[in-house]
């Protein structure tokens, strides 16, 4: 009787340990829950990349801003000469900020 109980206990332990639901193919290490789902999704087809949206450019506004940028930037060398002589034109900083703003806006308008 004792041998039969021992045999059944060993058999039960073996069956519990060899359960194929929680272990890989005999490796003895459990497979994390998300791995099987990831393996199924890993071979899914990849969607084509979205095409960039073509934005319309207001040619008249771009031309006006480019003309203003040219006018402002033409005045900078003489003002820099004044700075070299120790005189600081009062609107130099404002003009440089405006040039920077116009340049950034024009760049965003013409680049895709």
What does this structure look like?
The protein is mainly α and 112 residues long. It is built from 4 helices and no strands. Helix 3 (59-84) packs antiparallel against helix 4. The longest helix has 26 residues, at 59-84. The relative contact order is 0.07. The mean pLDDT is 79.
Tally of individual domains = 2
Helix count, per DSSP? Answer: 4
What structural category characterises the helix and strand content?
A: mainly alpha
Fraction in beta strands: under 5%
Cα-based radius of gyration, to the nearest Å? 38 Å
The SSE order reads HHHH
| DSSP helix fraction | 55-70%
> Mean pLDDT, nearest integer?
79
Would you report the number of β strands? 0
What's the shape? Answer: elongated
Which spans have pLDDT < 50 for at least 5 consecutive residues? none
Biggest sheet layout:
none
Distance between the termini: 85 Å
Comma- or semicolon-separated keywords:
single chain; 112 residues; mainly alpha; 2 domains; 4 helices
Please outline the helices and strands.
Elements: H1 2-17, H2 33-42, H3 59-84, H4 92-110
Helix pairs in contact: 3-4
What's this entry about, in short?
The protein is an all-alpha fold. The chain is built from 4 helices and no strands.
């Amino acid at each position: 009787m004792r041998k039969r109980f021992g045999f059944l206990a060993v058999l039960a332990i073996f069956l519990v340990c060899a359960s194929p639901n929680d272990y890989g193919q005999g490796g003895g290490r459990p497979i994390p829950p998300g791995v099987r789902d990831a393996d199924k999704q890993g071979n899914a087809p990849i969607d084509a990349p979205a095409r960039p949206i073509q934005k319309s450019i207001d040619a008249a506004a771009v031309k006006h801003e480019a003309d203003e940028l040219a006018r402002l930037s033409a005045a900078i060398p003489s003002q820099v000469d004044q700075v070299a002589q120790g005189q600081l034109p009062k609107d130099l900083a404002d003009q440089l900020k405006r040039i920077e703003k116009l340049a950034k806006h024009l760049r965003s308008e013409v680049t895709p």
